[in-house]
Design brief:
The protein has about 325 residues and is of the alpha+beta class. The chain is about 25% helix and about 20% strand. The protein has a five-stranded mixed sheet, with helices on both faces. A hairpin with a 2-residue loop joins strand 10 and strand 11. Helix 2 runs parallel beside helix 10. The longest helix has 20 residues, at about 225-245.
Length: about 325
């Protein structure tokens, strides 16, 4: 089924706070608006229908509600005469949604929309009052998927999502059990959307730094106390990031075309070679499962598995040497 791959592509994309910010904006600006037409220059964006079939199915529908599922934007469409549809945006690397009402926009608002990152409009939904919802996507990797009633919840890509990182009422015991399902690096587990949904590269680095946990620590070693620490800082960081309208480290903009402000509160992500906010030592950068990872080796010390490897002498575990962007090495015992 097409939706299987639609949800599980491992590409960089706006994370939970950025998606939550856009969803909040769309619930304020777009709910109750009637669709009268569709414009677009990227037919492959629409799945699984052709452009004309998609327009036929959504024309005359109203947006009833927007919600967030992990990193995805989900919209409910309905009308009095036909059964409802569910519309899902997958923004991927450079996509973001913009609400435009040029009849009422101020000069300042127009300046925000003039940002070059808001100029790559691939798809527009036109409303009855002539306002519109634009999808800007520089690299054309985004996708817009239309589900008929009942299909969305059955989609494998949705069913495999783990509990939400922010909304779910986590306990330390449950988080430890989910993280420990596979013996992998802690950061790799936090990025796994089947473990918990919504965390990406930015907030994984920030959560681990605030939790004082090494990104390469194996998940089978984590304690309940450390899981409780993760839960507390994770929710605090995500809520603060939403309050500051997300992190605009690259292409992300909110529905009004504005950059988010949370980047100035980052303490680890892309801070390599800068002093740690806690201890003053340099933040270093390594790769964890192919993902760039920044952390403080002093505040986030590595803890190895105490059990010796098969064939190794007791108490003489092999050292692990890591190289990072500065050319220095880290030796982990």
């Amino acid at each position: 089924m097409l939706c299987d791959g639609f949800f599980v592509m491992l590409l960089p994309m706006p994370e939970l706070p950025e998606v939550a910010t856009i969803v909040n904006d769309l619930n304020r600006f777009v709910v109750g608006k009637k669709i009268v037409s569709i414009n677009g220059d990227t037919p492959k964006l629409i799945q699984p229908y052709s452009f004309l079939e998609f327009e036929k199915r959504v024309k005359g529908k109203y947006f009833r509600r927007f919600e967030r599922r992990g990193k995805f934007i989900v919209a409910n469409l309905s009308s009095l005469s036909v059964r409802p549809y569910t519309l899902v945006w997958h923004m991927r690397m450079t996509g973001h949604l913009l609400y435009r009402d040029e009849k009422t926009e101020s000069k300042n608002a127009k300046e925000f929309f003039a940002d070059r990152r808001n100029q790559y409009i691939r798809f527009s939904i036109i409303f009855e009052d002539d306002s519109r919802l634009d999808f800007s996507d520089l690299r054309k990797f985004g996708a817009l998927h239309l589900f008929e009633e009942g299909e969305f919840e059955k989609c494998k890509g949705v069913s495999i999502l783990g509990p939400d990182a922010l909304e779910y009422k986590w306990t330390a015991k449950e988080l430890r059990e989910r993280l420990g399902q596979k013996k992998v690096a802690l950061k790799q587990a936090l990025l796994d959307q089947t473990v918990l949904a919504g965390i990406g590269n930015i907030y994984a680095d920030e959560i681990l730094w605030a939790s004082k946990l090494h990104p390469l620590m194996k998940t089978n070693l984590i304690t309940n106390e450390e899981c409780l620490r993760i839960i507390v800082v994770m929710k605090k960081i995500l809520r603060l990031a939403i309050k500051h309208r997300g992190s605009s480290v690259d292409d992300y903009r909110d529905a009004s075309g504005k950059a988010g402000n949370y980047s100035k509160y980052h303490r680890a992500y892309q801070k390599q070679n800068l002093p740690c906010f806690h201890c003053g030592n340099k933040i270093v950068r390594i790769k964890v499962n192919g993902r760039g990872t920044s952390f403080c080796p002093v505040c986030q010390p590595f803890r190895a598995d105490p059990e010796p490897r098969r064939g190794a002498s007791p108490g003489k575990n092999k050292k692990q040497t890591l190289r990072h962007g500065s050319g220095q090495t880290l030796t982990l015992q």
